[in-house]
Design goal:
Strand content: under 5%
Number of strands: 0
Structural class: mainly alpha
Largest sheet: none
Number of helices: 9
Distance between the termini: 26 Å
Helix content: over 70%
Length: 210
């Protein structure tokens, strides 16, 4: 499970794409970003369990398309800010202290929503379903064996998530250093435009994949 989580963490659609390239801030801000990703995955698990318990079907393709739309919207917003149509960007925004906490809360909420959508699209919640099946089909109180199965499944999910977050955070930190170095050579605006284009390309790729 740890290896599987690490492989997922390497994928740009699992968090580091949105964690990297953000404005530099204190370490606690980066930690909150990882926590937002974890909250999104937890919500995806809860959503899968509730849907399964009520016999509902979760459309993974629709979740991926929604995630793609969110990513494209973020790229579009960044692009509009760069040309001055959606509020200040770059140094001007960094000088404005009012509303900083509100913007960060919004960014973290967006990360959690993105994480929930992409985790649902990848079927993350299905890892718990085999352990929950006896509880939903027998109609009797779960015994020790069922409870043990659920605990084991939750542990596996926790290991998977921890490995994914560790890898995604490491990749994001490395990319942040790389972006900073590139910005010194080609200028901050050019680096920002390049990263915005990268967000849009990945979003379009997810949309095409469906």
């Amino acid at each position: 499970m740890a290896a599987s989580g690490a492989m997922h963490g390497l994928g740009p659609a699992n968090g580091w794409l949105l964690l990297a390239g953000r404005r530099p801030g204190p370490e606690r801000v980066a930690v909150r970003g990882l926590l937002a990703l974890a909250v999104g995955h937890a919500l995806a698990l809860m959503l899968a369990v509730v849907a399964y318990a009520h016999g509902l079907y979760l459309d993974a393709g629709l979740s991926r398309r929604c995630a793609a739309g969110l990513l494209i919207a973020i790229a579009a917003h960044r692009g509009l800010r760069d040309i001055g149509l959606a509020g200040p960007a770059g140094p001007v925004a960094r000088r404005a202290s009012a509303g900083t906490d509100r913007r960060r809360c919004g960014a973290h909420a967006g990360l959690a929503l993105w994480s929930c959508l992409i985790a649902t699209g990848q079927g993350t919640g299905t890892m718990l379903l085999p352990a929950l099946t006896p509880m939903c089909t027998t109609g009797v109180a779960p015994g020790p064996s069922v409870a043990g199965g659920v605990a084991t499944a939750l542990l596996a999910v926790g290991v998977h998530l921890a490995a994914m977050l560790a890898v995604a955070g490491t990749v994001a930190a490395g990319l942040d250093r790389g972006i900073a170095a590139v910005s010194q050579r080609i200028g901050t605006p050019a680096a920002r435009h390049g990263w915005t284009a990268g967000l849009a390309i990945v979003g379009l790729g997810l949309a095409v994949r469906g």
